[in-house]
Amino acid sequence: MAMIITTPAALAQITPTSSANAKASGALFIMGGAVRPDNAEIWQRLVAVAGGKGSKFAVIAAAAGNPESSAQRIIDALRAHGADGVLIPVAPRLANTDYRKAALDPAVARMVTDLAGVFFTGGDQSRITDALLTRDGKPTAVLEAVWSVHRRGGVIAGTSAGAAVMSTTMFFEPPEVLKLLQSGIVKGRDIAPGLGFIGSGVFVDQHVLARGRFARMVPAMHAAGYTFGLGVDENTALLVDAAGTAEVLGASGVVVVDTSNARFAEPDDGVEASGVRLSYLERGDRVDLHTHKVTPSAFKLAGRVLDHKLPDFKPEFNEPRFYADVLGKNQLIEVLCNLVDNKVEEVIGLAFGAPESKSAAAGFEYTFRKGRSTLAHLRIDNTTAHYTVLNVEMDVRRVVMAVPLYRATP
């Protein structure tokens, strides 16, 4: 399959389209992937934002390996909650279809124009831009139709790969997280232009907590010139209204990455950094995408404030912690929530590869610490602790791991 962007030179030639720069009045529904069909909170809210029962979505399964199957799963979920969807025949893997010709066809574009919303499925986001942008980076007729839906107030939704394209710059075809950290960001391979629905000031990533992808967001944001990023986790959505207020929905959370005050040891790749600020938001929490102000949910505001600077700070824990695999599934939640509810001021985690790897000695040390603006909101409900964590500071540096890392006792 021919892709639009293969080299840094080609990447540099592509600029945001006129459509991407146009003012939009619709909502965005950014799903972090693996959204369960029975997650009624997310699906019902999506249908409501699109106009309620009877609303209809254009389903674009360009990212999918099996577009028919992927689109049908989305259509089934929409129907289960009172809406409907129609597959738009613009997908590289769609059988018996010339997807490039279809993307330029006014008749196919009209299939999108009058609907309440557009839904991008998951898969490989490079296929979405391959399908909807011309070879010189201009919008196709179908992409113009998507933008017309958004400008008149329609909702643009996407899950996994469909969330990645919300940024003006997105992850394109990167390696897994640790390998990307070891090699540094390669423009045109790891990052490339997205579709830009969320605007030029916000970077978006997905599967962030389940796959440790917060770590790759920092160098990617640095390479692309972002200082503010949102990482949406699995079975979770971020609803962005026309005013730029984003609300967290679903089962997990969203990581806010702020590098505005960060310092980078290596200006070109951004892998080593200090002073990166991380926040963790859960259901009902909101963040203003213009001011970056976080407003915890009413549920959290009725709980406790954890502020380590106050003399009456009484955390749950008083013990050091160490994390051997900071990139592990949901490990960042444990790191952030434990730190703000602990007397210790910092914790350390490591990221490193398998002992048999050629790069086994190349690792990374992550230091998470409380800063002047670090605090949290905690609400305990039926023995379950719910946290909103604000402004934990993070440093990352390269380290050399021992090879072998361990040996059996005699």
Molecular structure report:
25% of the residues lie in helices and 29% in strands. It contains 13 helices and 21 strands. The protein has helices at residues 8-13, 18-21, 40-49, 67-80, 99-103, 106-113, 125-132, 141-151, 161-164, 177-183, 214-224, 298-301, 331-340; strands at residues 28-31, 56-60, 84-87, 117-120, 155-159, 169-171, 191-193, 203-206, 228-232, 236-240, 245-250, 253-258, 263-264, 273-282, 286-288, 294-295, 304-306, 322-323, 346-351, 362-381, 384-400. A hairpin with a 5-residue loop joins strand 15 (286-288) and strand 16 (294-295). Helix 6 runs parallel beside helix 8 (141-151). The longest helix is centred in the N-terminal third of the chain and has 14 residues, at 67-80. The radius of gyration is 22 Å and the shape is globular.
Descriptive labels:
410 residues, alpha/beta, 29% strand, disordered N terminus, ten-stranded mixed beta sheet, single chain
